[in-house]
Amino acid sequence: MTGHHTLRQTEDAIGERLGGLNVDFEAMWAVSNIYRASSAIRNHLEQTVLRDTGLTWTGFVVMWVVWLWGESETRHVAAEAGISKSTLTGVLKTLESYRHIRRFPHPTDRRRVMLELTASGERLMRSLFPDFNRQEAFVVKELDSEQRRGLADSLRKVVQHLETIER
């Protein structure tokens, strides 16, 4: 249970509230369960893997993006992390204070800012990610391999669909 009410109680209340409306309940259940699952997973990972690191979820995602792609421009990191550039600025102040990330001017356009992980940030990600992945495995423990692949494929289709209309 991620909130005050159980999943079943919430679904029953929604059914009662919206029963007379012409809505696509299958779509609503799918999207609301994606939201609930992502919130529950985020909370779980914050309370387990990230709890003793000083990292917020957003800080971890920013570090993940820079770890994955290497040296990156701030606007691209913000877009990949799904946050605004102003939010990124605040996150970077914290990550810089921990000496996990470094800002530096773009080599050809000094108005633009680049990011890279420091040696400390690199070490943190290399040590943290195996624990993170163990918790990912825990989260989907009740799904067999075929269900995991099916879930990943279904969610990938949702993301790809939205990416095609947002471009």
Please outline what is shown here.
With 167 residues, the protein is mainly alpha-helical. It is 67% helix and 7% strand.
Count of discrete domains? 2
Estimate what percentage of residues fall within beta strands.
Answer: 5-15%
Q: What does the main sheet amount to?
A: 3 strands, antiparallel
**Physical arrangement of strands within the biggest beta sheet:** 1-3-2
N to C succession of SSEs: HHHEHHEEHH
Structural class based on helices, strands and sheet pairing: mainly alpha
The total of helices stands at: 7
CATH topology (fold) name of the largest domain: Arc Repressor Mutant, subunit A
Pfam families: MarR
InterPro entries: HTH_MarR-typ, MarR/SlyA-like, WH-like_DNA-bd_sf, WH_DNA-bd_sf
Protein name: MarR family winged helix-turn-helix transcriptional regulator
Organism: Microtetraspora malaysiensis
